[in-house]
Amino acid sequence: MYTPDLYKNENQEEIRAFLKENSFGILINHTNGKLCATHIPIELELNADGKEILQGHISKLNPQAEGFRENDQVLAVFTGPHSYISSSWYDHENVPTWNYIAVHVYGRIKIVDYENSVEQLKKLVDKYEVNSKNPVRVEILSEKTMREARGIFGFEIEIEEIQATKKLSQNRDDHNYKNIISELEKTENPQSIAVAKEMSKCRK
Q: Which Gene3D superfamilies match (predicted)?
């Protein structure tokens, strides 16, 4: 991912929090001579050795999974809030741009066995059911329902490199920076308002 130095995020705690909060990602690999991508939840977890990895699952019917055995190198892409930035919001002439936050994780993937796949599903469901009025739990699902879990591959990605971009108008002076935040808040667009919130965190 091309990222000018000004926009590189090397704060590991921030990156870790971002991955946990924006875990619906895009898994990309090379299968049968072409690039393939699947949109799935991919969770940051610790393995048995205490090392950070990514975990997820994919349908056994998905042709993308065939490529994991041929070439275990994968890319997981995670995106956060993003918004168009109008140059009419500046006090000088300039070009419009786009503000966004994104993280690319490069690594090597391996398929895990059925038992580990089910454990991953339990963690995933528990995470997203925590605020449910009547939370679903994998442990109480019927044997018939759980047969569907036989149709997936659980996987782990050994993380080799993380590239993180946080492009939030860092190149603007305080006056223009504050004005961008103000204009974003006026849009009533949830993505734009989320960008304004992130910008407010970066510069008080």
A: Electron Transport, Fmn-binding Protein, Chain A
Answer whether 9's CB lies under 8 Å from 16's CB: no
Dist CA 146 CA 83 (whole Å)? 41
Q: Phi and psi dihedrals of 169, rounded to 5? A: 60, 35
Asked if pLDDT for residue 179 goes beyond 80, the answer is: yes
**The pTM is what?**
0.92
pLDDT tens, residue by residue, 95-106: 999 999 999 999
- Quick check: 6 and 170 in contact, CB under 8 A? yes
50 sits in the region (left: phi over 0; alpha: psi -120 to 50; else beta) called left
pLDDT at 147: 87
Q: What are phi and psi of 195, to 5 degrees?
A: -65, -45
Answer whether 106's CB lies under 8 Å from 81's CB. no
Q: Which of 73, 84, 62 is nearest to 30 (CA)?
A: 73
Q: Which residues contact 93 (CB under 8 A, 6 or more apart)?
A: 87
Q: Are 105 and 76 in contact (CB under 8 A)?
A: yes
Residue with tokens 């990895």: 53
- The rounded radius of gyration (Å) of the Cα atoms in the chain is 20
